[in-house]
UniProtKB/TrEMBL annotation:
Keywords attached to this entry: Membrane, Transmembrane, Transmembrane helix
Catalytic activity, EC: 2.7.7.65
Any one GO molecular-function label of the UniProt entry: diguanylate cyclase activity
Matches recorded under SUPFAM superfamilies: Nucleotide cyclase (SSF55073)
Name of the molecule in the record: diguanylate cyclase
Domain GGDEF: 250-382
Catalyzed reaction equations: 2 GTP = 3',3'-c-di-GMP + 2 diphosphate
Species the sequence originates in: Massilia polaris
Length: 394
């Protein structure tokens, strides 16, 4: 593939991606990273088109080359920025924009000094550097990243170095090195541009889909209001501790807690105030818990605590500490300052327990706390084990 055909393919490819993305997201609100990525593709398409028409009479070289490369640099820089946005670094603009400005200024200086040689060196180094910057953004999630993310990091890094190799070879060995000629490096560099266009396009879209799927899976297990595990998520986290309870070892406690007279808050101050109370209560509880403890929202204003390796006495102490913290933490809303109390039912997991028997026992203790005047901690009743029958002596 000659250079002219390669530039035309890159221009058409980026235009096709812009069109597909426009109709895919038509009428919907785009994420910031997706908007940046779409603009980067538009810049690259315009840049490659200008470079394709250079010297053809449509656009003179003095216009098409500086503006075309400037748009190309901006497109690749914004593409790297969109990857930094996906990586959770929204401040990328304060670093990428000055770097982009300096890169364009350096290219224009090289173009003014030597319109062919230095231009090739500068453009290869700048484009390879920005592509490598995008690979570095993906590499931030290497440890916990998927195989797709790791593949993209390695591929983008290698292709970025291949693009920059053209400049390195031109600087160090203008005549080539052995069988590695400038023509071969130029051909490989052209192929690398096409592969980078495809990899960054499909890689970005697949990563976005992967993140969306992970978010949907998280929402299936998480309460959106309090960001605590929902009923399904809590039972999934409880399952291994139910299995461990059948083996000898340290006990695990489960606590049910319910906010007292919560309905009066929704009725008197509105549901927004109730939401603030729930979030504050969850934050108050978490400050009293260990990192290994789990707080889940079961339904409405009923929450459950999983306290691993905690016996009944320690669970009662933890529940009492949380009860006092809730009572001592007034919640400030737009309409009033609301004081809350909570009732607790405490038990431990027994070897013969199922989730039904476990929560039935904890719920009975919670009801006893409610019936006893609320704002109390009550332990589940431990069944009395009858003494073994001994036959009378003959």
């Amino acid at each position: 593939m000659d250079i002219t055909t390669m530039v035309f393919v890159l221009a058409l490819g980026n235009l096709a991606l812009c069109a597909a993305l426009f109709f895919f997201e038509f009428g919907s609100r785009k994420a910031p990273s997706l908007s940046t990525w779409a603009i980067s593709r538009q810049c690259q398409a315009a840049g490659w088109l200008l470079l394709y028409f250079r010297g053809s009479g449509v656009a003179p070289d003095l216009v098409s080359i500086p503006i075309g490369y400037g748009l190309l640099f901006a497109g690749v820089a914004l593409e790297a920025g969109s990857l930094w946005e996906v990586a959770g670094r929204p401040r990328w603009r304060r670093y990428v924009y000055p770097l982009l400005g300096a890169s364009i200024a350096a290219f224009l200086a090289c173009y003014a000094i030597d319109q062919i040689g230095l231009r090739v060196v500068a453009s290869s180094l700048i484009l390879g550097g920005f592509y490598l910057l995008g690979a570095a953004a993906l590499a931030l999630g290497w440890r916990n990243g998927s195989m797709l993310r790791r593949f993209l990091v390695v591929s983008l890094a290698l292709l970025s170095l291949l693009v920059a190799a053209r400049a390195i070879l031109a600087l160090t060995m203008p005549g080539g090195w052995g069988w590695i000629s400038n023509a071969l490096v130029q051909a490989l560099s052209s192929g690398a541009f096409v592969l980078l266009m495809l990899l960054t396009a499909f890689g970005y879209l697949l990563l976005s889909r992967e993140q969306l799927q992970q978010e949907l899976e998280r929402l299936e297990m998480t309460d959106p209001l309090t960001d605590a595990p929902n009923r399904r998520g809590f039972f999934n986290l409880l399952a291994p501790w139910m299995a461990l309870a059948r083996r000898p070892g340290q006990p695990t406690a489960v606590v049910l807690l319910d906010l007292d007279q919560f309905k009066r808050i929704n009725d008197g101050y509105g549901h927004p105030a109730g939401d603030v109370v729930l979030r504050t209560m969850v934050d108050t509880c978490k400050r009293q818990l260990r990192d290994s403890d789990i707080l889940g929202r079961m339904a409405g204003v009923e929450f459950a605590l999983l306290l691993p390796r905690t016996d009944l006495l320690d669970a009662l102490l933890v529940s009492e500490r949380i009860r006092r913290a809730i009572e001592a933490t007034p919640v400030k809303t737009e309409r009033a300052i609301i004081k809350m109390t909570a009732s607790f039912g405490v038990t431990t997991i027994r070897p013969e327990d199922t989730t039904v028997s476990l929560f039935q026992r904890a719920d009975e203790a919670l009801r006893a706390a409610k019936q006893g005047g609320r704002n109390k901690v009550v332990q589940a009743v431990t069944p009395v084990v009858p003494e073994a029958w001994v036959p009378p002596a003959s």
